[in-house]
Amino acid sequence: MGERMMRAVEIGEPGGPEVLRAVTRPVPEPGHGEVLIRVAYAGVNRPDALQRAGAYAPPPGASDLPGLEAAGEIAAVGPGVAGLSEGDRVCALLPGGGYADYAVTPAAHCLLVPAGMGLDAAACLPETVFTVWSNVFMRGGLEAGERFLVHGGSSGIGTTAIQLARAFGARVFATAGSEEKCAACLRLGAERAIDYRAEDFVEVLKSEGGANVILDMVGGDYIARNLKALAEEGRLVQIAFLQGPKAEINFAPLMMKRQTITGSTLRPQSDLAKARIAEGLRAHVWPLIEAGRIAPVMDSEFALEEAAAAHARMESSAHIGKIVLRAAGG
Predict the structure, then answer these.
(1) Rounded-to-integer distance, Cα 39 and Cα 50, Å
(2) 229 lies in which domain range?
(3) Mind listing the pLDDT tens digit for each residue in 307-330?
(4) Are the beta carbons of 201 and 227 closer than 8 angstroms?
(5) What is the DSSP string of 142-187?
(6) Three-state SS at 46
(7) Is the Cα torsion angle 13, 18, 23, 27 positive or negative in sign?
(8) Is residue 136 over pLDDT 90?
(9) Which residues neighbour 211 within 8 Å (Cβ) at sequence distance 6 or greater?
(10) Enoyl reductase (ER) domain: from which residue to which, for each copy (predicted)?
């Protein structure tokens, strides 16, 4: 018996979408506490593009293949796994390796696919719900009645953040870059969508009394502007830097208004930290999904070997919601 082989998409060398290439590789084996997933769909995310460009190395021990989330059926269970078995439909946060027909991940990072949801939609959940839950609620402490501002409201993260914040009783504001994207934010539950090409989000939020929590992935000159838009005791949560990680900030108003700047990245966190986020999702978010109060917004689907086209779509910023790749189980 030779090794079982699978299709995968690897990064040939650092560069643009065209460096992604379809290859054949051995199917990975699940280690202790891990499961092997027959991937139906893999989510496409900004960190995948950063990794492809050579700006985001996988953590030690992770697959060199891109892909941080997937949905499919469990094909094999490693030693020490309880509560999951072959054939279970799961969506999962991955340390890497999602752009393939099979991927391994810690069992504790898997969540059963919500009842009635397709695997294509389920593949859109992990990266965004883990990120939004851990940053907006665990770190940012967003509570019912508070004013929440999310930048990039039509992105995968944004569409999830709007729905979750609204479901937990916050007043939601979002920025986006076109009338169409603003309309999408309003449909999802934002009470105000701000077209950043035509309006200043600082003035809008100030007129409402300031934001209690801001989720930002822009960085650059948005950092100082975010602090101006925050209310007293406001919390700025930084999760990415589309405009760059450096800013000049006057800290005096931050002290006067007792503001907090925090942030995190998901991928380098420990397996235990990710397992704790998964527990929170199971308890607080999965019931909302199963009740139909939150659903992923899907932009488009590409075949696995069309990963380059999927990346080009994501980097054009024309998409609204999530992009997925269809693999063997899809």
Answers:
(1) 22
(2) 129-263
(3) 999 999 999 999 999 999 999 999
(4) no
(5) --TT-EEEESSTTSHHHHHHHHHHHHTT-EEEEEESSHHHHHHHHH
(6) helix
(7) positive
(8) yes
(9) 147, 148, 149, 173, 205, 229, 230, 231, 234
(10) 15-325
Residue 3: predicted pLDDT: 82
Residue 215 C-alpha from the chain's centroid: 13
Q: How crowded is residue 251: how many other Cβ atoms within 10 Å of its Cβ?
A: 10
CATH classification of the domain holding 105: 3.90.180.10
Task: Output the six-digit token pair for 83.
Answer: 């509560």
Taking the C-alpha atoms of residue 9 and residue 45, their distance in angstroms, rounded to an integer, is 15
Cα separation values, 152 from 196, 202, 240, 278, Å: 10, 15, 11, 24
Structure tokens at 272: 């235990």
Please tell me whether residues 48 and 118 are part of one structural domain. yes
Are 53 and 163 in a shared domain? no
Q: What is the mean pLDDT of the chain?
A: 97
Looking at residue 188, which CATH number applies to its domain?
Answer: 3.40.50.720
Helix axis angle for 156-167 and 179-188, nearest 10°, is 30
pLDDT band, residue 2 (cuts 50/70/90): low
Residue with tokens 């006067």: 256
How far apart, in whole angstroms, are the C-alpha atoms of residue 45 and residue 265?
13
Considering the domain architecture, whether residues 60 and 21 belong to the same structural domain is answered as yes
Q: Please, what sign has the CA dihedral across residues 330, 297, 262, 272?
A: negative
In which residue are the tokens 């790749």 written? 325
d(CA 252, CA 267): 33
- Total domains in the chain come to 2
Whether 26 and 147 share a structural domain = no
Instruction: Among 239, 263, 287, identify where a domain stops.
Output: 263
How far is Cα 129 from Cα 124, in angstroms, rounded to an integer?
9
- Whole-angstrom distance, CA of residue 321 vs CA of residue 314: 10
Considering the domain architecture, whether residues 187 and 257 belong to the same structural domain is answered as yes
